[in-house]
Amino acid sequence: MTGTAISFEGVGKTYPKAGGLVTALEGVDLSVPEGSITGIIGRSGAGKSTLLRMVNGLERPTEGRVLVAGHDVGRARGGALRGIRRDVGMIFQHFNLLASRSVRGNVALPLEIAGLPRARIRARVDELIDQVGLTALADRYPAELSGGQKQRVGIARALATGPKVLLSDEATSALDPETTQTVLELLSRINRDLGLTVLLITHEMAVLRDIASHMAVIEAGRIVESGPTYGIFAAPAHATTRRFLSGVTGTALPAFVAARLQPDPPGDPVIRVTFAGAHATDPMLARLATDLGISANILGGTIEEIGARPFGNLLISVPLDRGAETRAFLERHGLTTEVLGHVR
Ligand SMILES: Nc1ncnc2c1ncn2[C@@H]1O[C@H](COP(=O)(O)OP(=O)(O)OP(=O)(O)O)[C@@H](O)[C@H]1O
Q: What Gene Ontology molecular function terms does this protein carry (predicted)?
């Protein structure tokens, strides 16, 4: 990664509403590194679509500016705006394919609009369809395709003009988990092979875990946390990020523990231990037992991979009088700990 593909600088957006204004975005500063897969996560209405649509000029900021490869999108008009749009492809949750056109016809559309000669369109379309693995289905119509196949057509169409940036608006939200994986793998491959920057919006942390090198969390129109995905998963700073994470990283307490959790002693402390970086695979619980003679109860946990690096979360409880010692020992060995409460 060498530079910045997209930057949002003090971006604000208000929409007129009966009797006033609704603020969709406020003070957004965010850099999307060139060649990254950057994901923006937020709840419904947080402002994700508004932010994404500013990158190809479908929305204009009411404050600040959005730069794509150094060009101010909000100020671009006519030919300059068309140029930016050729550099920015987009895929959609509901695919947005033309039902009356075959796979080939859908992929050809942006090239026809760009005025390419017929023979060149034909060759380019074949190449794109091959790239997304749909050669055998090139003459089918959208109604004859599965959701995953439709999204592949959407991806081929978005790549037609050779963009530098691909925007993804909840591209896997309408797909089942297995199909989601195959589409995410395709996006990763395109990012790698073509060096394309991908900016995606999602409400699922699992999507970020699986493919995003960088991420940002948006809430009520503001970015509350951003940075490399691994670092945020390992040490989320904002409560909203933690809430999103609890569903995917085994940080959610099992119901039987949550129901008994008290904020204060006398119960035993429930400790969340996060294993990341160099220490992710260290056998620390075994060492806790052998070195300090403390046996921890395991209440839950997961170990997974984020950006090909191991990452784990373990929920344990230890006797009340050994809590501080346990945390100090684990932290000394490079793990992060947090007391979630106490259980009897
Ligand atoms: N064209 C518009 N006119 C008026 N208000 C709008 C418009 N588009 C979005 N908004 C408002 O701006 C806020 C942010 O909406 P936005 O669609 O960007 O959020 P989102 O995070 O993408 O949500 P979702 O996941 O539901 O699509 C919301 O309060 C929404 O109602």
A: ATP binding; ATP hydrolysis activity
47 lines ligand 1 (CB under 6 A): yes
Q: Is the CB of 24 under 6 A from ligand 1?
A: yes
- In short, whether 52's Cβ falls inside 6 Å of ligand 1 is no
Protein residue closest via CA to atom 1 of ligand 1: 15
Residue ending a domain, among 208, 240, 272, is 240
Residue 216 is assigned to a structural domain of this protein: yes
CB 334 within 8 Å of CB 279: yes
Radius of gyration of the chain (CA): 24
**What ipTM was assigned to the predicted interfaces of this complex?**
0.95
Residue 276, token pair as written in the block? 């990341």
CB atoms within 10 A of CB 199: 27
Residues 214 and 329 in one domain: no
**pTM of the model as a whole:** 0.85
Of how many residues is the chain composed? 344
* Residue indicated by tokens 């030919």: 79
In a domain, 218, yes or no: yes
Both tokens assigned to 154: 């959407």
Distances (CA, A) of 98 to 86, 124, 156: 20, 19, 14
